[in-house]
Design a protein that fits this description.
The chain is α+β, with helices and mostly antiparallel strands. Helix content is 28%, strand content 29%. The termini are far apart. Its EC number is 2.3.1.118.
């Protein structure tokens, strides 16, 4: 019953999805999983443009999200992106399920306001997330406390919080002397897609972090390219550059040039 509720795309939809990612279909290996995650973060941006524009509840229905992101060539936020990605994983043949995450970047314990996916392979579980902006983990992370997953943008690892929950940490390679940053508390058990409805409602309500301010992220080979409000953070070989936007027209130009998103 629970597994029957998980998102899953059909063969035709998976083919269109892979075309959007500019990847050929391959066997369901861990290596291909890493390529899917990295390419997804590079090609399909995290963005909350519809919420800021309309202040209406974002639909996380799989067909709606597929039409918006794959056919409409848009991005989305975590409840859209990770629902769609889970549909791709299961459609391709991976054994995968959705998990709830508590965001820990702010003080206090909050309700689970993020969703990600877990892939089961070779008797082990791997955490996969294509719906978190910033320095996201660009590959599947082994969900075993103490095991480090190395990436171009730092190391990621899990530590035990309590029974059923693991804390997910990030440590930047340039800050080896400093402690890591605790990002999420991740459930070890699957959730049904309907379980995320209250969190989606909360994140689409006045006062929520994505309700009023435009937030757009896309990973590049030099790190995350982002728009937050009227500030654009560009990352190039020479380093980071911050540009302040002065009009809606400038924002539209940045969205089109850097994120391949065209909005009216």
């Amino acid at each position: 019953m629970l597994e029957e509720s998980f998102e899953q795309l059909d063969q035709e939809q998976c083919a269109a999805y892979l075309k959007r990612l500019k990847l050929p279909q391959e066997e369901c290996t861990l290596e291909f999983l890493d390529r899917l995650i990295r390419r997804h973060l590079e090609e399909i941006p995290f963005e909350n443009l519809d919420l800021v524009r309309t202040h209406e509840l974002i639909s996380t229905d799989l067909d709606t999200v597929y039409k918006k992101i794959i056919q409409g060539k848009r991005g989305g936020y975590c409840f859209e992106l990770n629902a769609l990605f889970l549909g791709l994983l299961r459609g391709l043949g991976y054994q995968a399920y959705p998990v709830a995450c508590r965001v820990l970047r702010r003080p206090g314990l909050r309700m689970p306001t993020h969703r990600a996916s877990v892939v089961c392979a070779d008797g082990k579980k791997y955490f996969c997330d294509v719906g978190y902006g910033g320095f996201a983990c660009v590959r599947a992370a082994l969900m075993e406390p103490g095991v480090v997953t190395h990436t171009d943008f730092g190391s990621f690892y899990f530590e035990r919080e309590c029974a059923g929950w693991l804390n997910f940490w990030h440590k930047g390679e340039k800050n080896r002397e400093k402690s890591g940053i605790k990002i999420f508390m991740v459930a070890e058990f699957p959730s049904a897609p309907v379980d995320f409805a209250p969190a989606n409602q909360a994140m689409c309500s006045p006062g929520a972090m994505f309700y009023d301010k435009v937030v757009v992220h896309r990973m590049t080979e030099y790190g995350p390219l982002s728009v937050e409000g009227n500030q654009v953070t560009l990352r190039e070989k020479e380093g980071k550059k911050i540009v302040t936007l002065s009009s809606g027209e400038e924002l539209r130009e940045v969205l089109k040039k850097e994120f391949k998103i065209e909005v009216i």
